[in-house]
Specification:
- The protein is of the alpha+beta class.
- The protein has two domains: 14-106, Rossmann fold, CATH 3.40.50; 115-215, Luciferase, Domain 3 (Luciferase, domain 3), CATH 2.30.38.
- The protein contains four helices and ten strands, in the order H-E-H-E-H-E-E-E-E-E-H-E-E-E.
- The strands form two sheets. The protein has a five-stranded mixed beta sheet with strand order 1-2-3-4-5, with helices on one face. Strands 6, 7, 8, 9 and 10 form a five-stranded antiparallel beta sheet that branches.
- Helix 3 links the parallel strand 2 and strand 3.
- Helix 2 (27-36) packs across helix 3.
- The protein is elongated.
């Protein structure tokens, strides 16, 4: 900001960053922020990105301005109602070579608490993909949307019962309250994202990281 309170597209108001201490927005916004900014922001501690592809180049650019920032890449859709996975990149001040070991597109990460990201074989849906094998990404979580308003066919296609687990219908009791007709009880459902993904080694012996293969 200049002395009259006007924005400067080629600098970043460090006072705002110091006060906030974090950044939250789409990756496109992050790209704009990092490419237009020239002011060092050592007080920035956390930057969260969701909604678009996050690249290694974006992260290196941001780290060149904010050596102490931890970058968290998240994945989620409107239908999942929130971000359902995360991948954390440590600050350059703590691990300056971490990004050197990453591919050009940052992984979507591991599922958050009570969330499973399932990479399913596109030919046989009864099989999960092996490490490195490209498959269709399904999200298993309790907070999925009920479906699309007045689009029953699309709802049936995208929100499916978990065919990998056996579950019995739950008796929700007599429908005496008005809201009962909209409550279907606890269910084991999957959301079919339409994205392709693959499991990648997490480095701790488990295969929990998922990358969006369409964007690799």
């Amino acid at each position: 900001m200049d002395g009259k309170g006007r924005g400067n597209s080629h600098s970043l108001d460090s006072r705002f960053v110091y006060a906030a201490g974090y950044s939250d927005g789409s990756t496109a916004m992050g790209q704009l922020l990092s490419t237009e900014a020239t002011t060092s922001i050592p007080a920035l501690r956390n930057a969260f990105f969701v909604g678009d592809v996050l690249t290694k180049r974006d992260c290196l650019r941001l780290q060149s301005l904010a050596a102490n920032v931890r970058i968290i890449n998240m994945y989620g859709t409107t239908e999942t109602q929130r971000a359902v996975s995360y991948f954390s990149i440590p600050p350059a001040s703590l691990d300056p070579v971490f990004l050197a070991g990453q591919k050009d597109v940052i992984p979507a990460g591991r599922g958050m608490t009570d969330v499973q990201l399932l990479v399913v074989n596109r030919i046989d849906r009864n099989l999960l993909c092996g490490v490195g094998e490209i498959g269709e990404l399904f999200v298993r979580a309790a907070g999925l949307a009920e479906g699309y308003l007045k689009l029953p066919d699309l709802t049936k296609e995208k929100f499916v019962a978990n065919w990998m687990a056996s579950s019995k219908p739950v008796d929700t009791g007599p429908a005496t309250e008005e809201w009962r007709e909209y409550y279907f009880g606890p269910r084991d459902r999957l959301y079919r994202t339409g994205d392709l993904g693959r499991y990648t080694p997490s480095g701790d012996g488990r295969f929990s990281l998922v990358s969006r293969a369409l964007m690799l």
